[in-house]
Each structure stands twice: as C-alpha cells, then as structure tokens.
Amino acid sequence: MKLISHDEVLKGGYVFPSEGLCFNMDNLEAEAFRSEGEWILSNNEQLASEGGSQNYLYMLMSGQVDLLKADHFGENQKLSILTVGDTFGEVAFLKGRISSVTATSVGTCLLWRMDYTRLLKFIVEHGTSGGQLCLNLAGILAGRLVDGNQRVMEIRDELQQSIKQMQSARSEGVFKTKSLEAMQSQLVSMEHGFRSSGKGKSVFSIFSIVCLAMAFLSTAGLIILLSADEDITKETVDQLNKKLVQLEQDQTFQIDLKKKLESENFYLVNQADVLSEEKILSEENSAQLEEELAKSRAEIEILKNKLDQSNDQLIRSQSDPIVVDDNVIPAEFILNVLEWVKENSTVVLPVAVEIINNPIVLSDREQLVQIPIQPGGEVVAIRLHTEFDGFLVVGQRNSQQFLASVKIENTNFIEIVAGKYVAEKKRQGESVQNPFLKPLE
Asked: What is the pLDDT of residues 290-315, one digit of tens each?
C-alpha cells in the first residue's frame, strides 16, 4: 500500500464523484471534505479483515475491490464486487470500528480514504454539510439493502421453480420419491421463511445472499443427479441425505444471520438518531462559537488600538531632544544622525558607548548567564535594533555571546557618532554644527 499526493491524482485525470458521499453538498464544503482524506495505491492487498479493527472509510477511484464474508464453515465467500465510485467501511464507522467484511484489492487500485476521527470531526464542525454527509451514508446503506432484497426475491423464485421440477420427478421410483419429499419439505420451510420475512421490515443485505445461493446450487445439483440416473443405489441415497443435512445447516445459518442483520438494522437506526442529535448540538455550538469569535475580534481591535497608541508614544519619545550639560540637542539633529547611521552602519558600527542612566543586563540566548552593567560602564553598540526604533543591540567588547537591547537615550551613542556625522557632511560640502560641542567664546 502506497500513499500518493493530490497532485499525482490530478495528473492522472481522476475526478472525485459528485454523487455518493458528496451528493447535494456545497462545492467548497465538498472540496474541504475531499482534502481531509488521503490517496493510496493498493496492489492485490487486504484492506480490511472481518472482525478486525477498521479505521477508514474508503472510496474506489479505479480498479476493483472484492468484499468477502466467512460462512459457518469459516470459509470466505464473495459477497460483492466494488467498482469505481463504490464505498465501503460505513458499517464499521457506525459499529465501533470493527469490520463486518473482508476487503481485498484486485490488481492495482486507486482509493481515497478518510480516517473515522477526521470524518466525525468534519460532521461536527460543518453543520449543514455534516448533516448531508450523514444522509448520504444512510442512503448508501439503504441502497444496499434494497439491492439485497431484490436478489432475495430472485432466489426465492428460482427455489420455487426447483420445487416444481422435483415434484414432476416423483414417479421415477420409491427411493427417489422419499428423497425428493424430504428435500421438498426443506425447501418449503425455507420458502415460508422468506414469506414471513417479507411481512416485517426488510433487513436483508448482501450477506444473506450467500447462504441462499448455496442452498439453490445444492438443490440444482440434486435435480440433475436424479434426472440422469434411472437406478438409485444406496450410495446415491446416502449422498442425497448428506445434501439434505447441508441444506438444513445452511437454513440454520441463514436464520441466525437474519436475526443478526435485524439487530444491526436496529442499531443503525439508533445511530442515525444519535447523529441527528449531534448535528443539532453542533449547530448550537457553532452559533456559540460565532458569538465568542465576535467578542474576541472586538477585544483584539481594542488591543490593536492600544498598541497603536503605544507606538505613537514611542515615536514621540524618540523625537524628544536630548539635554547634555544644559545643552539641548535638537530632535531633528538626532533623527538625522540615526538615519545616517542606518545608511552607513558598516562604517560607523560597532562603536564603544557608555551606559548613562539605568543599569542593563547582558545575557546569552538561553538566559542562563546574566552580566549586569551599571551606569558608567562601557559596552559596544553592535547595530541598531531591526524591530524597535530607538533601541540599540549592545554586547561585550570582544564577544557577541552576551547581548542586550538598550534605549539609545540611555547611552552616549548619539554624542559618539555625532562627530563622525558632522565630519562626513562637511566632507560632502554641507555646513552642519555639532550641538554637543560648546561654541568657542
């Protein structure tokens, strides 16, 4: 079994059917549903085992998948052949994730599948589409019941025809008559069973067809044997008795299976009711979540406004002038210096600066080592902070292992680089006064 990507599926020209699972679903919701699943290639492999754990809902996109069911002898009998667009795994989804059949791929097959956890999550989170998906699953199961009932009726007609043929063969001998009467009794009993099942709610599925087909084939074989041989021997009678025992066993198995299917049908009806209730709850939860989301958006908008106000205050604080020894440094000069440093950072930086007002702490990335720097201490300005204007990234003189972010106004950075800025402007022919230098008296 091999997982393949959605792009590979598109290149192969495969199109997910709009009928079946996605019937009557909105296109966007259907696309969301398909994207939750995954695509696999399977080559002559067992996809599910009867009575084993089953965690996926499958849809066949190309190839063939056979469904098999064990009879009361423990041998697998083929129940159905799935073709493109058919699904399997619905019963396991509703019945504790236990597979009711064995599924095997024939040759190379492309399948889409979704695990039951995601399937249930989709149903709960997508109110309308989730409810439609439940109806589609119920529709698929109902279609199989209708097909199974039709096949049962066909087999009943074939069995009635067999009874008529055996009745015409009574006159061929005493041994034949006794054997045929015994068989006729068995077949009439089975026919009565069909009639009684037709009065109540139909619960036959493709599982019951296997035992009925076995009974029909056994009867047809006996008719051929009795028609071909004129002289009936004791060995032949023994063979007929064995066939009758086989028919009795098949009938018992069919009756037990009918009871089991009736129980399963009752369970499926209850599950449908539960899913309907969950759909109503999910719609109520969705409305509540929408209300909470609207409140959260309003709170986010309030916080955003507060953040904008804080940024405005920060920008205004960065534009405030600096006072050095009663000498006011114009805000415009400070902004021009910072802009010049941004454009010439590789020439200006790094540069040694002094911490002026508040102590800082250098630390490594993991915050395991901390080095305090008191006012008057020296650090190296490595670069302007890339995210926060008005801040420097500083470190030790000979190492960048321990760093800190510090406000520019808490250092003499502007004063240190002002001389370089003024000298560069004069070299370019501009007359700029360094406000940090006292005018000559």
From this structure: 888 888 888 888 887 777 666 555 55
Buried residues in 66-100 as b, exposed as e (16+ CB within 10 A) = bbbbebeeeebeebbebeeebbbbbbbbbeebebb
138, two tokens: 């119920």
Distances (CA, A) of 137 to 22, 85, 98, 144, 279: 10, 13, 17, 11, 14
Peptide bond into 435 cis (omega under 30): no
Q: Map out the domains of the chain as residue ranges.
A: 2-124, 145-287, 322-427
CA distances in angstroms from 170 to 18, 176, 177, 223, 372, listed in the order given: 57, 7, 5, 11, 114
Where in 83-209 does DSSP place strands (E)? 87-88, 102-115
Tokens (6 digits) for 305: 């406004």
Torsion angle of alpha carbons 277, 283, 284, 290, nearest 10°?
160
The CATH class for the domain spanning 2-124 reads mainly beta
pLDDT single digits (tens) 336-354: 999 999 999 888 899 999 9
CA dihedral 163, 165, 168, 173 (to 10 degrees): -90
Count Cβ atoms below 10 Å from residue 381 Cβ, excluding itself: 23
β-bridge mates for residue 77, sequence order = 69
Report the predicted TM-score, pTM, of the whole model to 2 decimal places: 0.39
Tokens of 160: 């009635």
